[in-house]
Design goal:
Layout: H1 2-30, E1 67-69, E2 85-87, E3 94-96, E4 101-109, E5 112-118, E6 123-128, E7 130-132, E8 139-140, E9 145-149, E10 165-171, E11 174-176
Antiparallel strand pairs: 1-2, 2-10, 3-9, 4-5, 4-8, 5-6, 6-10, 7-9, 10-11
């Protein structure tokens, strides 16, 4: 009699599984279509290119020199690229804040003197190699002198040694081309 009870229970479980499968099949075939989907992105899948539509375009160039190397922003933070723009400037040139904000960092990293400014809207700009004339936490205005360009030839081996000013920008966690922060350019064809 023990075997008969077990066989009956097995048959009931089997019927329940078949019934559940039939209901699931009917729901899939005749149920309402949904547009909801779930996808999980790994940190490496998150794009670095950040929308610049809402970025204030009221910044100014920190130095008047020509562009020595344009930005080449990579699609992922870990990919190679040029995360800023290099502007021509001579050692000792006065470097201005591109926009108003608070000095986030003023010091030396890997032998390179630099200044970072938090503009309060998710935007942080960096200037290197700059011998700082400001202190961390200090409020700066647009166009205010924040330091002088260091002479790359006098910096330690570990420092950035390219000529001119390296000007970078990050919006939230992604790099952006700092030239996109500038307002429209007025072209004058004659005097």
């Amino acid at each position: 009699m023990g075997r008969a009870k077990r066989a009956g229970r097995t048959l009931q479980v089997g019927r329940a599984v078949v019934a559940a499968a039939a209901v699931a099949t009917l729901c899939l075939c005749f149920g309402e279509p949904t547009t909801t989907s779930l996808s999980v992105a790994s940190p490496l899948d998150v794009p670095v290119a950040v929308s610049q539509a809402d970025v204030s375009r009221t910044h100014l160039r920190p130095v008047d020199g020509a562009v020595l190397q344009a930005a080449d922003i990579p699609e992922q933070n870990w990919l190679p690229g040029h995360r800023g723009v290099d502007l021509e400037a001579r050692p000792g040139a006065m470097i201005r804040a591109s926009g108003a904000g608070t000095v986030r960092f003023a010091g030396v990293v890997a032998g390179t003197p630099l200044v970072s400014i938090d503009h309060g809207d998710g935007l942080v700009t960096t200037y290197e190699p700059v011998l700082s004339g400001v202190s961390q936490g200090e409020t700066v205005s647009r166009g205010q002198v924040i330091g002088r360009l260091a002479d790359a030839a006098t910096l330690p081996e570990t420092a950035r040694r390219d000529p001119g000013l390296s000007w970078g920008a990050r919006l939230d966690e992604g790099y952006i081309d700092p030239m996109s922060l500038l307002g429209s350019v007025r072209v004058r064809l004659w005097d």
